[in-house]
Amino acid sequence: MQPDLAYIDEDGKLHDDGLHDEMLNNPEADRWSRKLAFDAAIRAGVDAATARRLYGDDLATGNEA
Fold first, then answer.
1. Rounded to whole angstroms, what are the CA distances from 40 to 11, 18, 26, 56?
2. Choosing a second label site near 17 at 20 to 30 A (CA), which of 2, 7, 42, 56?
3. How far apart are the two ends of the chain, measured CA to CA in Å?
């Protein structure tokens, strides 16, 4: 039995694209994920300006080195 949001294409392959739509359309989760990546980049030695350019200006706290 397949999930409701999955479908079988013309080649008989199961696709579950629809299962991810709700997860991907979540601005709060997106910001949280970007903040984790931003913080990890700073800890790894990436300068704050580069980290902001990569992950977004809205993530900087002002405490970056």
1. 42, 30, 21, 14
2. 56
3. 53
